[in-house]
Write a structure and sequence with these properties.
About 75% of the residues lie in helices and about 0% in strands. The protein is an all-alpha fold. Helix 4 packs across helix 8. It is elongated and about 60 Å long.
Length: about 180
């Protein structure tokens, strides 16, 4: 990608994250964003349709980075307790960005966990296509991904190591039964 384009996009991303940290996405205007990013509105519209398009782009990019931090997504099917640890640690590695893009509310958490569920399934089923139409496997993966992600986010201000250990223990017991 051309350096100027990359510089413009980085400026937009940084300005959006700064604004998103202090206000909901629906309160951010293109005018406000472009002034903060020091670009024209026309330039913004060359890259994105609207603020929501930019927000979705950044959400998807953050989720792809998170999935890239999970060494063995297929463990959701073979070793779900370890998979839960890897998923939680990936969230921790991604840090502050998720709390900005997906603030503490059930709508944001729902969007996050649903997108994450779909992306992890795609990654798993690329490796194990025989499970793509297996209802039991789909339910199992959804339960682990959504349960772990939602629970970690809900208790992120608590003793995170204990939250992760508790999740892994619950999953381990559930798999044994």
């Amino acid at each position: 990608m051309d350096r100027r384009i990359q510089r413009t996009r980085n400026s937009l991303f940084s300005a959006f994250i700064e604004l998103r940290a202090v206000k909901p996405v629906e309160k951010i205007t293109v005018k406000e964003l472009t002034e903060k990013a020091n670009i024209s509105k026309q330039t913004f519209y060359l890259h994105f349709q609207d603020i929501y398009d930019l927000s979705e782009y950044l959400e998807n990019d953050a989720l792809q980075s998170l999935i890239g931090d999970i060494p063995n997504p297929e463990y959701m099917l073979t070793n779900p307790a370890e998979a839960s640890r890897q998923l939680c640690n990936a969230f921790i590695n991604q840090g502050h960005l998720f709390s900005i893009l997906f603030p503490d509310d059930s709508r944001s958490y729902g969007v996050l966990t649903n997108k994450l569920d779909a992306l992890i399934k795609e990654k798993i089923y690329d490796e194990r296509p025989e499970f793509r139409d297996d209802l039991s496997k789909n339910v199992e993966v959804s339960m682990f991904v959504q349960g772990c992600a939602y629970t970690l986010l809900k208790y992120k201000d608590q003793d995170v190591a204990k939250v992760i250990d508790t999740l892994a223990g619950i999953i381990e017991r559930a798999v044994r039964e």
